[in-house]
Amino acid sequence: MSVIYDVEKIFKSNVFKNFSYLSFSHIVNVIFPLFTFPYITRIFGPDGYGVLNFLQSFVAYFAVISDYGIGIIAPGLLSSEKNNHSKFSIIFHSILFIKIILSFVSFFLILLISYFSHDLKLNTNLIIIIFLGSVFLNNIYPGYFFQAIERMKYLAYINILIKFLSVLALFVFVNSQKDLSIYLWINTISIGVSSILGLFLVYYKFGLSFVMPSIESILDIFKKSTFSFFSVLCTNAYTISNFIFLGFYFEKKEVGFYSGPYRIMYYFISFIFLLGQALYPKMAILSKSSINEGYKIVKKSFIYVLPFLVVISVIIFFNSKKIVLLLIGYEYLESYKALKIISIVPVFIFVSNMIGIQIILASNNLKLFLVITFLGLVLNLISNFFITINYGYVGASITFLITEFFVAFFSFLGLRRLLKNA
């Protein structure tokens, strides 16, 4: 009876419902790219697709700066004040204000750096389009609000609607390599519409009142998010750096050969992030009160999810050529080597996410989390200098694998230390 009761309890829980909505939304995100991803890679070719990913990776650094780690702590901050409407509103608007101000700072830095780089200066117009969507409009998207109140279904509805319309626009307007700017505008407009719809729901559906945030509230969130910012900066830096090293040291075709397999694996990895998003508001409360209680939840996730990820990784490893031909195209055939190398990466990312985010960060052990991600960044930079620069996209794939393995390993060591002191 206890097993049946536990199963019923899981299915009725908000975590399960939120994960279900996010999973359904993500399934749509996976189904649509099964058509759009092969189309884009073939239309733009390795060179064009390489340019696209190189520029997106460059702008992604500034997306991290403008977020300042707030995206990680925002759901926890808001969820702890769900029953205090006034304080909830102050926190929400403080977050929004910070993100908007930092977006403008990031824009200035992007223009400044682009001016002094030949590769970037040639593509300034494309960089501005990417910035508008990936940084500014994405920063006003209130996803953390819906995470905090555990109403993920609204995120799912918005995502599905916008995704459907953007896919239609893609096939109608993007027909050659010259249409790269049109493709970027479609993405930017999609993010803009999602952000506007999200804010509309925040103010009109849930009745949040506008409050001008105080200096004290803004500084308090800045202070609380500082460790998260440096941790996210390290994490994103060691993820993005592979693209940047390839883009500056090799032809953009090499970036394309790395980007294709990376995007394939990212579709699987993003399921891990969805589970993390659904879990985090609960884990932020649970892990703070008891590391051991948080660990029990994570252990259950290991039992149910890890075997599935291992099976997926094995399938991808032994079918890498077929997958590359099917999803990316013949021009990218040699990149199957990269796909083989990184096929096991989702397993390591799952371990580091469940331990690093759901326990170490959620329990407010920010310094430990920062140390883990910083070590990951150092290893990544060393690997890029000695491996990526010499072996191109294959080297970047090895660097990706090495980095994620050691981040998972360091996270495990950190957890052991916390459990020992609990």
Quick summary:
This protein has 422 residues and is mainly α. The chain is built from 17 helices and no strands.
Question: Would you mind describing this structure in some detail?
Answer:
The chain is mainly alpha-helical and 422 residues long. It is built from 17 helices and no strands.
List keywords for this structure.
single chain; mainly alpha
Please give the alpha-carbon distance between the first and last residues.
32 Å
Helix-strand category: mainly alpha
Low-confidence parts, pLDDT < 50 over ≥5 residues? 1-12
Q: Output the radius of gyration.
A: 21 Å
Major sheet details: none
Order of helices and strands: HHHHHHHHHHHHHHHHH
In what range is the share of β-strand residues? under 5%
- Given the structure, what is the number of helices? 17
Number of strands: 0
Mean pLDDT over all positions: 83
Helical content, roughly?
A: over 70%
Q: What is the 3D form? A: globular
